[in-house]
Amino acid sequence: MIMGSTDDEAESFFQATAKVNLVDANLFDRETPQRTVMMPEIIIDKYPVTCHQYLEFCTATRHQCPENWRSGRYPDGQTNHPVTYVTMQDALAYCKWVGGRLPYESEWEKAARGTDGRVYPWGNQFDPNCANVDKHGAEARTQSVDAYPDGASPYGCMDVVGNVMEWTWDQNVPYPGFKDKHRKPGAGGMTVTIISGGGQVTENPVFVPTESTVRGGSYQTVTGLCRCASRLNTSQKMAAPWLGFRCVYSPDPANAAREMLEAGNIKAAVERSRMALILSPTHPAVSFNAGVTFRYAKLFDEAADIWQRLLASWPDDADAQAELSRCRRKDSSR
Question: Is the peptide bond before 33 cis (omega within 30 degrees of 0)?
Answer without folding.
Answer: yes
